[in-house]
Amino acid sequence: MEIRWRLRMAAAQREVWTGAQLRRLLAERAGLELSSASVSALFSGEPAQVRLSTLAALCTALQCTPDDLFEVDTTPVERPAAAPGAPAAPVPKAASGGRSMPPI
Questions:
Q1: For FRET with 93, which of 1, 17, 18, 65 sits at 20 to 30 Å CA-CA?
Q2: d(CA 5, CA 54)
Q3: Second CATH level (architecture) for the domain 2-73
Q4: Distances (CA, A) of 82 to 4, 25, 85, 87
C-alpha cells in the first residue's frame, strides 16, 4: 500500500500557487493560524503525519475532501514465496480473541 500527498496538486487546481496564499486561506476560511514554516512543509513535502484538525482546515480552506489530498494505492503487498519445505510463518491472532470487529 502506498499513500501519496497531493496537497500541491489540489491547491493548484483551485488556483492556489504559493504557501502564502494557502496560509491566508487557512486563516480566513478555517480560522487556523499556521506558521509559514509549517505551511511550507505541508505544501512542499510529504508529511509523516497530519493532525485531523489540520486536515479538516485544509479541506475547508481549499473547499475539497480528504480524497483530493491523498492518493491511496490499496494494491495488496505481495509476500515472497516461502522456500520449498520451509514451514509457513504463523499468522498472529488479534488481541481481541480473534474478532476483527468490535461487538455490536
A1: 1
A2: 14
A3: Orthogonal Bundle (1.10)
A4: 31, 53, 8, 8
Supply 51's cell numbers.
Answer: 493532525
Average model confidence (pLDDT) across the chain: 85
Short-list 48, 46, 86, CA closest to 69: 46
- What are the domain boundaries of the chain? 2-73
C-beta of residue 6 within 8 angstroms of C-beta of residue 65: no
Of residues 68, 66, 60, 64, the one with CA closest to residue 26 = 60
Please report, as a single letter, which amino acid is at residue 59. C
Tell me what the mean pLDDT of segment 14-43 comes to: 93
Amino acid, res. 8: R
Per the document, the length of the chain is: 104
Residue with cell 480560522: 31
What is the pTM for the complete model shown?
A: 0.69
Question: Strand ranges (DSSP E) for 6-99?
Answer: 70-73
The band of 88, judged by pLDDT with boundaries at 50, 70 and 90, is low
